Amino acid sequence: MNIDQEAQNLIELSNYLNEKEILKLNKTIKYAIKAHQGQKRFSGDPYIIHPFKIAQYLASKKFDLITIQAALLHDTYEDCDISLNEISKLFGKSVSQIVSGVSKLGEIRFRKNWFSNEEIIIKLTNFERQSETIKKMILAMSKDIRVIIIKLIDRAHNMETLQFVPKEKQYRIAKETMDIFAPIADRLGMGELKSKLQNLAFPYLYRKEYTLFIKMYKKATKNREIYCLRIHKSLLKLIIKNKLNAKIEARVKSVYSTYVKLNYYDGDFEKVSDLVALRIIVDNEDACYQAMGLVHKLYRPIPNKIKDYISQSKPNGYQSLHTTVFGPNSQILEIQIRTKEMDRQAKFGIASHWYYKEYSKKGFNNRKIAKTIPWIKEMAKWSSMIEDIDEFSLSMKTDFFSDRIFVFTPKGDIKDLPIDSSPIDFAFSVHSEVGYSMIGAKVNGKIAQISSKLNNSDIVEILTTKKPIGPKRDWLNFIKTYNARYHIKKYLKKYQR
User: 48: number of CA atoms within 13 Å, CB side?
Assistant: First the structure.
């Protein structure tokens, strides 16, 4: 790869920066090239290509100069014997702090860096290593979200060349990517990056399954795309007739996501309604609902398959209208409707805020960002409360990195819980006192067992008493969240029940 060309690509992508900032960027580029001079990755490419690719991604999303500089320099401290003090003097304290944060996330390693040849052997089990990684990433997020964003992109680019890494390391790296990095990208709303991480890890975790599955996947998606083309023409004709400004595009479900969903349908691709979905992009919210009306005028919607994530967005910020309809020949198809801004949010999540300059007009403010992602604060709280690193890792994987359901309070507030959560988990997610006062629950207006499993979109009402009787020990058998487990154990210990 041509280093000068990669540098030029970065400058061109950064054309939204002012003249003074471009000069600073050029200075950083020259410094990074010199620092990594002579270094190679396992793939044989010059090492500097790696930080260039990360910086280019950030520039394409219009990130601030400091974040791009930190991306260019993120491995200089770790791999080039350059001090943080020198980085701070040359490029500023903010840049050096981000570089330090990214470097700290990489300290739990079998080697100093996957793609350098300096070996540092650390005798940790895979579980211990993952536990340490999770805790460090949570602390980093609570301090400066840019550290995690750089690390996620860093991981994605490293996964692209994982085939060049020694085979004995490939599974561990892919497992960590699937279990930690992809879920964090998902929680940050970075759907495109999450899918990329999952797809890249998939063939290393399930080698035999991947080889068989990918052939079936390509055949099924090709057939579905041909079918979608027919519907695309019919929808476009109707939209033009009704003078609605819209763009229609096909979205193919990611490889790994399809693999997971197919397991629920016994390998029947026909049952995966969103294998190839049509996406209608419009100008504003009102147009979203207008477009849905036109879709339902043309194709009959399936009852209980209409989802409004605009009026009730997902906790990660995702907004869209989803409807599943009977298309020609009674074939089922999902159609998604959203604005351009919603589409960017769905793909890039937290990174989209830089695109719209929400965090660059008045400078970067991590507290402001944390308010838009309340679970970061909650994770940081558990990080300080749970001393046992293994217990902490298990709680994070269950409470924050597992598959999610979204349930509602009677007032319409959304609660984001792990799949298989019970009304008890819901009660403690509202407040510990609600959990302590709980005597029963209603789900969708009907009395339900407090041990029952909640489903997506359930409306949950907790029945309480004015005189709390406290939780029972057997409640521990029905809960999923660490939050509920922590408060129940705390109560039982205090009152010796």
Answer: 19
Marked catalytic residue, from 64, 79, 399, 461: 79
The pTM score is: 0.80
Residue 400 identity (one-letter amino acid): F
Residue 347, token pair as written in the block? 């793909």
pLDDT digits (tens, 9 = 90+) for 223-278: 898 889 889 999 999 999 999 999 999 989 999 999 999 988 888 888 888 899 99
79 carries an active-site annotation:
yes
Q: Are residues 194 and 268 in the same domain?
A: no
User: Closest by alpha carbon to 224, among 277, 185, 264?
Assistant: 277
For 44, list phi and psi in degrees, rounded to 5: 100, -10
Q: Which amino acid is at 81?
A: D
Q: Which of 6, 78, 144, 179 is catalytic?
A: 78
Range of the domain at 179: 3-203
Q: Are residues 167 and 76 in the same domain?
A: yes
Note the pLDDT tens digit of each residue in 143-152.
788 888 999 9
Q: Is residue 295 part of a domain?
A: yes
Q: Are residues 79 and 212 in the same domain?
A: no
Query: What gap in Å lies between CA 303 and CA 321, rounded to an integer?
Result: 15
**Among candidate residues 82, 88, 78, the one with its CA nearest the CA of residue 116:** 78
* 375 domain residue, yes or no: no
